[in-house]
């Protein structure tokens, strides 16, 4: 699961948090905007009402021509009492000479409005009042109407409150929906991780990308690529184990079979003992080679590289192989054109040279020549081993380096690891091994060139 | 019994060949898969001992080829890996039995005899004909309860004729059966063996079909 990651990053949390804040901010903006526009609408509505009332008052008063005393107030105003909204209404009727003809009970004695014909918001007796005054066409009467602004504010606030109530009710539902949606999204992730978790270690087939969301298809593709790489590596590993076990068990089977036959058939004793010794030698050599190979495989690079004199090493190898060389009366010719030394692992370089020179001797016909050249050429130190044997066909030149690869015409009882080991050692020293036919067309020339690693 | 052995390892191949010969069997040994398959198409063998890791042609490929050709020869597979998948692969490809290296030679011989017996449709480990009883595993022949000493080649010829009662075998066919493919044999060798067999087991057992060959009647 994602939340178990070290970093504790949860896509779900991120999604929900972002959604929550985003929704809240959006809602606040909407609420503010609707509050403002509501206030504006309410103003217009009330202003209209005030204007209408003023006109009605003017109409009634001028048509009845009620001539009343200045300062008279209507005690039974139709605007008094009753609804809350009406309560806040106040009016005055003045004549052209500035006499107050009539006023509502809550009206002050001073004119409500400062100017005639427009709406204004003024301070009247300590409270904010919206005022309007209109004049009759004859100009004899002026009607002032005022209304406490508070009533409008209250109205707008009520509407805002109801907006908040709705939001408070709707918000949990909204959050729940987000949660569900995000869950649905992360379910794909959970499904995928379950699918991967259910796999056994030997199932490295690619994950199907059909039901994988686009957003994580990249991860799945990368994972598939990695798995196919691991699969190939495991395949090589399995092949190696299969080959190694074949190579180890076969001589053991031979040793056992010879021994069992010798127990029954006295006539076979001598042959059996000889073969058993051969078999044990072979198995020992193979075990050593496998150990060498796994040792090289485990190396990350050359550790403890020292100054190596390859000429000395070549001479040592030839000395150590003298039995095989003498048996076939092979003439080994060495030619050292340089005294340059090399930085490397002496034991490994010995193994490299021995494997190559031993191969050359093994495949050489009796009484033939094997040449070993040590040269400095084109900025590379190189050792060439040239024999007069059958050579290696072009199509097999890459395969001979494969582990356990043995040519169908292979001579002797090699394990098929010699060249594989040689190549590993070479690459550890930054060197390459090239196989070419000799100039005469007969025999093989093996060249190890140390291109990157040289010491002068 | 004539056995075809396909094993590329000299050490092991030599030991198996010698052990089979010691048990009185005739052996043709090839180190390459393709050569073994060719030999199988040209000669009659009672069983094939097949190694998997063969040069020329992989053992499993050889096995598939011979089964595709509807050849039902008993095949004993030699494998280096004892894992279940490997064994199953071998058996699925048409092997009758398998042995994991290193194996016990006596077990190989016992399994080989069992395979040949089963292929011949016999259940008991002995072959009986009239008053003659042959126990191949012990290389033992009795006539009316009395032990009869037979040479290795005589034993091979007798077994082959009795196992295939009613079939006539030419001198050449018997030579091919008894001797390895690469062995030089004198022209009258089979005649000599038949002569000895008649002396030891009675004149009427093996009949001569003049100009054709020899037969043991049903």
Protein architecture, described:
The complex is a heterodimer of chains A (456) and B (218). Chain A has 456 residues and is an alpha+beta fold. Chain A is 51% helix and 16% strand. In chain A, strand 9 and strand 10 (380-386) form a beta hairpin. The two termini of chain A are 58 Å apart. Chain B has 8 helices and 11 strands. Chain B has 2 domains: 2-119, Rossmann fold; 127-215, Winged helix-like DNA-binding domain superfamily/Winged helix DNA-binding domain (Arc Repressor Mutant, subunit A, Orthogonal Bundle), CATH 1.10.10.10. In chain B, strands 2-1-3-4-5 form a 5-stranded parallel β-sheet, with helices on both faces. A 4-stranded antiparallel β-sheet of chain B has the order 6-7-8-9, with helices on one face. Chain B is globular, with a radius of gyration of 18 Å. Chain B is an alpha/beta fold and 218 residues long. The interface between A and B is medium-sized, with 30 and 27 residues.
